[in-house]
């Protein structure tokens, strides 16, 4: 069963949909103003009924807005260190080229927002928690 994840922000949100095995089906940064339209369209395309949302600064506002999406269970999870981890995931997916290869990626700032990578991390954390609880 597919699961969606959201890293809410004031102007932009990271969004991702993963299958039950943790494979990314889609990930992108969306405008906060278009949150409901984007989530509704993705729900129709990918058939998820659960959305994991980070508990950051604008989380409560986003949770309120997500009540407009029918038949969507919103699950709040801790965002601790996700931005830092997302930067590392960005560099794995987009290795530096040219002279940037000489500088450690830990000293570089990704040239684009990494909110979508945060969403992937949130979804995978949730799937891992779910697997652990089934194993107990």
TrEMBL record:
Q: Which SMART domains match?
A: YqgFc
| Gene3D superfamilies, alphabetized | YqgF/RNase H-like domain
Q: Which GO terms describe its biological process?
A: nucleobase-containing compound metabolic process
Start and end residues of each YqgF/RNase H-like domain = 1-86
What is the name of the protein in this document? YqgF/RNase H-like domain-containing protein
Upper lineage: Bacteria, Bacillati, Bacillota, Negativicutes, Selenomonadales
